[in-house]
Amino acid sequence: MKIKLYLSSLALVLFALLGGGSFSGEEIGIFFTILLVVVGITIVAAMITSAVQSKNKKKRLQMIKEDEQQSTDFDRSVFIGDDRCKLYFDASKKKVMIMRVMTEGIKKEYVDDFEYPGKSLATYTTPAFYIYDPTRRKLLSGTYNDLNIIHQVTSIAEKDNNKNVAVNNTIPPIFRTLRTSHTSSTASVTNKLYNVLIDECHGLMAISESGKVKDIFNYINASSLPKKRGDKSTINTKGVGNYLFIMDDFFKVLVLVGSSTREIFNYSDIIEVSYEENGSQLYTKSAGRTVGGAIVGGVLMGGAGAVVGGLSGGSKQNKEIKDMDIKILLRSTSRTTCILHFKDVDRVLKTKDETDRKLYETYVKNANQAKDILSIIIDNAKQSSAPIAQLVTQPVVAPSSSSVADELAKLAKLKADGILTEEEFQAQKSKLLEM
Known about the structure:
Low-confidence stretches: 289-315, 389-400
Number of helices: 5
Mean pLDDT: 83
Radius of gyration: 28 Å
Distance between the termini: 50 Å
Structural class: alpha+beta
């Protein structure tokens, strides 16, 4: 990547110089000599770096092998990790050994009263690790910095509001990961990796980042939890852009997890989903009632599988995109809308540029997948019984005066289309005017 950057920069300098005037053969020769020297230095530096990294890795692996041969007091047959950090699980001792390895030395730390849960609940992604012991309901998480091991054991049971509720299912917990990426206006990229523990048996989730537990919450209330029985999961998950969609089709509940997002909705909370570019609506689907066998409300651009905002046609080849959003209209007592952002760069995209066009196509694909999921949820909600009450209160977001006018117009349209009753319309209108 660095070599490509250097070559691109030098090429730009060459074009700039050529654009400024003519060159003699000697000057061009000097320029290309400098170019070859810079490229040569870059390649040699990359080769040296690669050789050093390979040598260090071999040394760490040898250190691990020697340590394993010399230490016989801890069973090392079960482990996760790599040459930089390994976690060993001794079943007889019910103990974990965390071993950080550097060419300068080895450091070990131990965690008592903890058992290996199997590969599905033990994950390591340099430099963070997460292991969940479902028997003790404890989550071991951590990372490392130099020879320092930073870890914590979190009692999930203590954070569980449903811990005293009778559980009628034996559904095992699962881990899911979410990778997010954001590019600033200065082209610096921020990547984050989140780990989500889904304990369906107890209607609970835990979100972790960089080896630390950030949030633990129940998504199902105590009175409803015993209704789920058996050993078959009803959870489906889908990572889309910078969001993880977690859907419980039994309780008809959607949990949305993002870099700065944690939302919980009953399926029946979602009145409408729409896709917008630069504030213009290109797609909408409503939770319409049936009138004479036909669904009221509908689609502006294609069905659930249609690609919105496609690039076909000459007029779409020269677009400037400031915003690409999925907007969810809610039937909620605390808020009216939830907006998901799918343009993950802090600059205007110009689709006549090849790089921007590819980014735009990626963002459109992600927004389309989110739209499909939410459209299916709207259809699924029509088959739902009474909604399940939620334990987590959603934050109240006060809309601006312009957004209030927009929402009132939307509500009026939904009422005119027969989607909202007069009572529902007045209730939503009152909430908007009070905020």
